[in-house]
Predict the structure.
Amino acid sequence: MCSEKLSPRIPPLEPPYTSEVASALAKWMPPGSPVEPLKLFRTLLQNQEISDRMRPLGAGLLGRHSSIDPREREIVIDRVCARCRCEYEWGVHVAFFGQALHIPQDHLHATVTGSSDDSVWSERERLLVRLVDELHETSTLSEPLWRELAKGWSPSQLIELLVMVGWYHLISFIANGARIELEEWAPRFPQDERNG
């Protein structure tokens, strides 16, 4: 979703939080986070049962149990969010993970404006961008791409990558469909994407 100012369709919960909501938000946010609980999480908590079911999978994809290299994970996530035009989640991930992992700005921008042939990508990264693009466009993967992916990632990792792409489609659908307002501190899409 572009950064035009639209009112949220489902408003995020606002403080003061009940003890139950505060406890749930503490589980969603990383310990010691310098920012307020994300609007995404405060919106999800409008349905606490769904939120509680979602949190373990989301945390697992980002946490120590993941088998995907963190830099590769972020390229996949940022590309999914860009393809879904979810500026909200793209910006949050760039702020929290892209910068922490020292992913260069041109790589982050290429997740939005580039193709799998972009010169910034390594061969492995090109495969990941193709993975996201093919799944986004066709809901499946071509046999030649699958063979290439299977050379670089184990069956377990391939399952995780497929789940990751699906998960961030889900997150993008929630953020875009509910019109979650952009976080003030999060980067925005590169300018040419907003005008494109």
